[in-house]
Fold this sequence. Notes:
Layout: H1 2-34, H2 39-53, H3 58-74, H4 80-99, H5 103-119, H6 123-139, H7 143-159, H8 163-179, H9 183-200, H10 203-219, H11 223-240, H12 243-259, H13 263-280, H14 283-299, H15 303-320, H16 323-440, H17 443-477, H18 481-488, H19 494-504, H20 509-516, H21 520-534, H22 542-548
Helix pairs in contact: 1-2, 2-3, 2-4, 3-4, 4-5, 5-6, 5-16, 6-7, 6-8, 7-8, 8-9, 8-10, 9-10, 10-11, 10-12, 11-12, 12-13, 12-14, 13-14, 14-15, 16-17, 19-21, 19-22, 20-21
Transmembrane segments: 358-378
Keywords: Coiled coil, Membrane, TPR repeat, Transmembrane, Transmembrane helix
TPR repeats: 127-160, 167-200
Amino acid sequence: xxxxxxxxxxxxxxxxxxxxxxxxxxxxxxxxxxxxxxxxxxxxxxxxxxxxxxxxxxxxxxxxxxxxxxxxxxxxxxxxxxxxxxxxxxxxxxxxxxxxxxxxxxxxxxxxxxxxxxxxxxxxxxxxxxxxxxxxxxxxxxxxxxxxxxxxxxxxxxxxxxxxxxxxxxxxxxxxxxxxxxxxxxxxxxxxxxxxxxxxxxxxxxxxxxxxxxxxxxxxxxxxxxxxxxxxxxxxxxxxxxxxxxxxxxxxxxxxxxxxxxxxxxxxxxxxxxxxxxxxxxxxxxxxxxxxxxxxxxxxxxxxxxxxxxxxxxxxxxxxxxxxxxxxxxxxxxxxxxxxxxxxxxxxxxxxxxxxxxxxxxxxxxxxxxxxxxxxxxxxxxxxxxxxxxxxxxxxxxxxxxxxxxxxxxxxxxxxxxxxxxxxxxxxxxxxxxxxxxxxxxxxxxxxxxxxxxxxxxxxxxxxxxxxxxxxxxxxxxxxxxxxxxxxxxxxxxxxxxxxxxxxxxxxxxxxxxxxxxxxxxxxxxxxxxxxxxxxxxxxxxxxxxxxx
Length: 549
């Protein structure tokens, strides 16, 4: 007895300390609201106050968030801070209305919040809103759609590394699987949720999973396993002032005692759940509490109270669960999806229009650039063609002048060669005559002979002066030819290159032999070797081939 009394006093002491801490936090938050210097500061302070009140004082939390919502909606223009706090206000008002069983209004708020978070690309919060929408479908007993939303929330939260969001979605998904009597799937979800909450060291959320596990044990008839968990968690929720969890805790314990046929204890816990639900306006919990009491009274054979409580249950139940509200919820969701698809189509349409305009602009720009480049290329081509034509004309003129010069040089050279031939003949004849005259001459005639010889020699000197210019003429006409033919045909000897230079001047074999003081046979042999080394095609004249070089 003393031990029990000690435990009660300890629990009371801890509860008092916790309540004082909560009160201190509440007082500080209210002071910050009063000290706000501007409307936006007040909205931020009210948001923090509302988030603190949402588990302990739902009506005041709703007032705080409504004030935030009304002020931020009246602000003109879009600001990231304003949009963030407004989207959060919508989400929290969705939670409050969901707890009050105003599911249509709750879904409206959730969809507005989801839309704003998506526009801000804040997918951390999008996952949270989808999770909350899943809870609405669970309360509407549309468990398949609730599971679909929880799975979607898990995917988003895993991508954004929101471990708490993943754990919370697994916990709620376990409840939906339990309602569908898929016990194994529910157990897997609960275990995943509990493991993640343990990593995060979230005691309150771990207890929430334990509560759901206890409910599962209870549904399997294992009340000895479920009751200790529920009673322990109830004391914890009362100590932290969590009204919703306390209300649910009382109800779950009432159900266990009902199953154990301890109807008086069951009624006591059902009444406690109903009292909190009525104070906080938790319509769904009110409905469930009346139904539980009706069931217990029926078991006690107190049919009057059973009937009265059932009527109260029907009144609240009909206001929550009816065909019209289900249709309205479905209509809201469909309207949201339709609006979302319409906006996506508008975005796609605008994007396609922009792409078409861009393509047209690029096409016109390409056409202009292409035309300009084509014109510039054409002008450049015509200019270069003109320059090439002029250059060709100049080269042609140079060649004509060179050809004429070569022809003149050839004529002069041939004349020199002819003079050279005459010189040789004359020298031979002069030599023969001197020899003949020497035999026949007498002393009187020597003087006259000498005079005649001098005259002939003077003529020969004139001829010799002509002959000395032959080599100069050859070099002038063939300037640069020798270096070129050395480069093209390095196997040619010097003698062969000299013969090539003479052949280039279109001289005959006899003329070349005369110039080089060689026999015609040796010139012919040189000509043959040259043709072979130059690889002159058969049928083409050697002189023409050399001139083409």
